[in-house]
Amino acid sequence: MRHTHDMHSEDPVGTTNATTARHITIRCQFCESWNRVDASRAADRPKCGKCGKPMLLDRPYPLTDETFARTIAESDVPVLVDFYADWCGPCKMMAPFVDEIARERQGQVLVAKLDTDRSQTTSMLFNIRSIPTTIVFKAGKEAARQMGAVPKKGLEALLANAGT
Ligand SMILES: [Zn+2]
């Protein structure tokens, strides 16, 4: 990672004493402009600052080779990424659990997914040898990794391993 910044803190994600807003950095899927979303307001269906379309954070957010590095590096919340492929049966089995985590941890964790066939550069960079592989990134760095499909509890354990 060329770009790291240690503004990371272990505070539980603020509902009450949000002194410093934490942001999620994502590219709008419609107009492709970059947005910084206040993580504590993720559930309010934030809209793209440019085109006004919703940025849906209650489900896994699709990342690509183009958007991956910046999202990981510039989001203040941990980012859980499901590295998957459309043809992968175990990935499909795990997908509903990833969806649930996205809903439940909305605003605390950015849950994302990356299609390893379409985004091979990122998959190679992180040495993805089997799918699904799930990685939690904190402050742009890998904090925990799970290879193979796991039930929801396994994803929760992964987040716990990453200190989230
Ligand atoms: Zn937009």
SSE blueprint:
Layout lengths: L22 E5 L6 E5 L22 E3 L4 H7 L4 E6 L4 H16 L5 E6 L4 H6 L7 E6 L2 E7 L4 H10 L3
Parallel strand pairs: 3-5, 4-5
Antiparallel strand pairs: 1-2, 4-6, 6-7
The protein binds zinc ion.
Compact summary:
By secondary structure, this protein is α/β, with parallel strands linked by helices. It is 24% helix and 23% strand.
Structural account:
This protein has 164 residues and is of the alpha/beta class. Helix content is 24%, strand content 23%. The protein contains 4 helices and 7 strands; from the N terminus they run βββαβαβαββα. The strands form 2 sheets. A 5-stranded mixed β-sheet has the order 3-5-4-6-7, sandwiched between helices. β4, α2 and β5 form a beta-alpha-beta unit. Mean pLDDT is 91; it is low at 6-18. Bound molecules: zinc ion (ZN). Zinc ion binds next to loops. Residues 28, 30-31, 33, 48, 50-51, 53 line the site of zinc ion.
Task: Give the rounded overall mean pLDDT.
Answer: 91
Summed up, the helix count is 4
Which strand order do you get reading across the main beta sheet?
Answer: 3-5-4-6-7
Low-confidence stretches: 6-18
SS-derived structural category: alpha/beta
Termini separation (Å)?
21 Å
User: What fraction, in percent, of the residue positions are helical?
Assistant: 10-25%
- Distinct ligands: zinc ion
How would a crystallographer describe the biggest sheet?
A: 5 strands, mixed
Number of strands: 7
- State Rg: 15 Å
Outline: globular
Q: How much strand?
A: 15-25%
